[in-house]
């Protein structure tokens, strides 16, 4: 597998703790960061989670039942 070189600046404490975790797992810091990146990409939505708008409280809008599809689309697109 070909890798793309990337430079990341970490706070000293982040670097120390991540290095310790990598050593405990018997892998390089780079491999640990690759694993963390994949985990993030697998679990984080690429768009806003439209279900997060459910039951947040009063919107002040009286047309929710008629225009809910439009509001969900706007929430997903970030408008």
Unreliable runs: none
Mean pLDDT: 80
| Count of helix runs | 3
Instruction: Give the biggest beta sheet.
Output: none
Number of strand elements: 0
In terms of DSSP E residues, the strand content is: under 5%
**Helix amount:** 40-55%
Number of domains: 2
Structural class, by secondary structure, is mainly alpha
Question: How far is the first residue's CA from the last residue's CA?
Answer: 39 Å
For the CA atoms, what is the radius of gyration? Answer: 20 Å
Question: Care to describe what's here?
Answer:
By secondary structure, the protein is mainly alpha-helical. It has two domains: 12-43; 48-79, no CATH class. The protein has helices at residues 12-25, 29-43, 64-77. Helix 1 packs across helix 2. The relative contact order is 0.08.
Write the layout of secondary structure elements.
Layout: H1 12-25, H2 29-43, H3 64-77
Helix pairs in contact: 1-2
């Amino acid at each position: 597998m070909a890798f793309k070189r990337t430079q990341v600046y970490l706070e000293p404490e982040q670097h120390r703790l991540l290095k310790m975790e990598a050593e405990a797992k018997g892998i390089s810091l780079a491999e640990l960061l690759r694993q963390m990146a994949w985990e993030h990409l697998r679990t984080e939505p690429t768009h806003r989670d439209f279900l997060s708008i459910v039951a947040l409280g009063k919107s002040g809008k009286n047309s929710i039942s008629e225009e809910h599809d439009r509001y969900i689309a706007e929430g997903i697109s970030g408008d």
